Records
---
Amino acid sequence: MKKMKRNIALAMSGVAASAAISLVAAPAATNQHYQLQCSTYTGGSLGSYDGGATCTGAGVWKVKVDCTVGGTLYSPSVFSLGETQSTSAGPCWWGVSSVQVIEIPA
């Protein structure tokens, strides 16, 4: 019984550490092709973290999300004529390690 309590405590401490890592703000994306102005974000909770971006400008782009414990996810492509649009990808179970805006050349 003592071993089970210790294992549960260790598992919960790992969850808390993962949550703390996942809540670190992602840096703003820099774009070269379309000159989009973008900001990235992460959010969610255990089992359903996601990452996304909000971009202003004309172009075609999508979001790449790297999950903390393996896996890479992509959002659907966004076609923008200059307005501000957002998209996201997920879920990542343990958290998001990075979010990147990928421009898709015409």
Note: The helical segments are 2-22.
---
Amino acid sequence: MMNDRELDRVWRVHLSARREELACQRRFEALGEDGVAFVAGMLRGADPEGRDAALALVAENTGLAITLVDSLLWLSVSHAWAGRVRQVLAAVPSAEIFPMLTERIPRLLNQALVEEEQPDDNFRRIAELLEHLRHWHLLGELVESAAESSDGDVREVAEDYEKYRSLFSER
């Protein structure tokens, strides 16, 4: 077990690292569009450590999350990153994020039906996101669209989320 001096030293190192992290965040914010483009690239890049760091940066700044909503939605259908993205988007006030999701998600799902080998994965991850955010109205639209799909696995997503039908009219 650590003694008090060792605990104090570890705590001071932690505080120093946190101050440095906050200073770096301010430097990224000062970069403006170049910084935003760099973070978007990290979110979409193959480097998991870079992606994790970018998500941590976005989680600290809801304005950045709003700006990068397209990259976050792209990442939200990934099995590995969906949970983190849900947490980041849940921190954004619903009055700000819901209109953006309402505009973008139908397009994302239509694209999945055309381009993806397994569109049901995209439908399921987006349904999980909408459930997490309690965006019932848009979840209702997703369920309706999924129910009309010719893909049986996509229709299964609709069946799984039918239990929320009584909430679908909520905005």
Note: Residues 4-30 form the longest helix (27 residues).
---
Amino acid sequence: MVDGSGEITVTTRKVSFGHPKCPLDLAWGGLDTIDLVAPEVFETGFRNIHNGQRTTVQLHTPWASLLFVLAAVTAFPAHPPCWDAAGCRPTSRGDAPTWAAPAARQQGSC
């Protein structure tokens, strides 16, 4: 387990962790699981391309919520939409996100 600091680079396709001894590239499309386990902790699971073993990593960063959203829309596009506290779901019209009231509130958590 690598424990240490390094720089991350975030794009719409991946996050790269620039650790001097163990760099890591996480392409959003290759992730099996994602979770925002704390406000600044992004956790993901994937199969290691070198040995096929399941690997779980955590990135502790103020950008964790951004990583979670980018990974979610890329790796899990069919996931049901989440509802906000007022019962509205996000929609997209043009370049700006808007909010639309749902016909019926979705049961359960997203």
Note: Residues 64-75 form the longest helix (12 residues).
